[in-house]
Amino acid sequence: MKVLKFGGTSVGTAERIKHVAGLVSGRGKNIIVLSAMAGTTNTLVEISGYLFKKNVEGAKETINNLERKYFQTIAELYDDAELRNEAEREIKACFNYIRSMTKDVFTSFEEKEILAQGEIMSTLMMHLYMQGIGVNSALIPALEYMRTDKNGEPDMQHIRQRLNNLLDKHPEADLYITQGYICRNAYGEIDNLQRGGSDYSASLIGAAVGAEEIEIWTDIDGMHNNDPRYVEGTRPVERLSFDEAAELAYFGAKILHPMCVQPAKYANIPVRLLNTMDPSAKGTLIGNDSDCGAIKAVAAKDNIIAIRVRSGRMLLAYGFLKNVFETFEAHRTPIDMVATSEVGVSLTIDSDKNLDSILEDLRKFGTVTVDRDMVIICVVGSFDWKNCGFEANVISALKDIPVRMICYGGSDCNISFLVRKEDKVKALNLLSEKLFD
Ligand code: ASP
Ligand code: MG
């Protein structure tokens, strides 16, 4: 059994839905995980925004517009009048449910219920379409098995047990369809796995059923060796290790949700990234074994803030780094890069949410300076320290660019640089020229 996940653009129009139905039918009893149709989750966020601000008219108008789009899609999707009527009835019910949220107090609980409707609607429409083309699909509601615990972490035991029970109830099914992104939390309330979380759902589902492979279908043919928005002639990387893929996903390659890698890695299930628009393209295979001895890809993460704390008394002092790190922990702010010297430490964060209070606390331990608008450039590949010359090669590519920080040796698979925002595109291009041309 495989898990096949399709993102929002892959199911973004009636035509795309038909195309995906064609791709998945006849391939065996797999689990199909869908995102909401492209744009829907953003619109649902917008509707919630109106309701938080008590702008009921704005919310209603946006709901009506979105509903019209869905009815248009339904009109294009089903030839059979009976299926069309059923789709209209069910989608109407979803919109009426969203409308019912405009009548009373609106909190983040209601918001999550609204956000869940996107995936509920896309899977419903796909399921009904399957019936029309003679595929006996079974709709498996994520809200009945996907759950997080009190720490917001997936409750793997619950997911495994409930999901397998639900699948067992449909021995006659040709394939299964389920929602990405949505779940219940430890209190049974409707919740989600954060924006872009459908990839994570697919990985959790794959781990829960012991899938043979997890396929993530998007609109690009795999993970590219550099950012195609800024660099010409990038190529898909054929193979990546889980660790390499995790670094790339975290440091900017938008194609995969960073959390997605973990469950698949621990269950040792290969993840294949494929292109809905070009299904025969090879894509990228992510697995526990990867080809060694190569530099694979470059990615960039924007809006980074670098903080340097200089201690007058760090020489032979202990406790300084502990104090600095504890400050970030106390403000629940994750650190990306770290570089130390005998007199100070530089680190980076990607959010200024708690910056003022962090800086105030850090000033107790030394002189603090801040550089904003920085970018992390992350190069991924075989950076085992015993491989000679790999890091030198990468560093020499950036010889004409001012580099604020370098991190190497934290893992076997990456080296990262911190540069100014205005040097990002040049840095990405220089690295591609040096490493991949
Ligand atoms: N529909 C959700 C989002 O737009 C989840 C996903 O697509 O992965 O964030
Ligand atoms: Mg996505």
Automatic annotation (TrEMBL):
Substrate binds at residues 41, 119. GO terms for cellular component: cytosol. The keyword Protein biosynthesis does not apply. It is an enzyme of class 2 (transferase). It catalyses: L-aspartate + ATP = 4-phospho-L-aspartate + ADP. Residues 377-434 form the Aspartokinase ACT domain. Keywords: Amino-acid biosynthesis, ATP-binding, Kinase, Nucleotide-binding, Transferase. One of its GO terms (biological process) is homoserine biosynthetic process. ATP binds at residues 5-8, 218-219, 229. It comes from the Bacteria. GO terms for molecular function: aspartate kinase activity; ATP binding. This is Aspartokinase. Residues 2-275 form the Aspartate/glutamate/uridylate kinase domain. Pathway: Amino-acid biosynthesis; L-methionine biosynthesis via de novo pathway; L-homoserine from L-aspartate: step 1/3; Amino-acid biosynthesis; L-threonine biosynthesis; L-threonine from L-aspartate: step 1/5; Amino-acid biosynthesis; L-lysine biosynthesis via DAP pathway; (S)-tetrahydrodipicolinate from L-aspartate: step 1/4. Belongs to the aspartokinase family. Its EC number is 2.7.2.4. SUPFAM superfamilies: ACT-like (SSF55021), Carbamate kinase-like (SSF53633). The keyword Kinase applies. It holds the Pfam family AA_kinase. Gene3D superfamilies: 3.30.70.260, Acetylglutamate kinase-like.
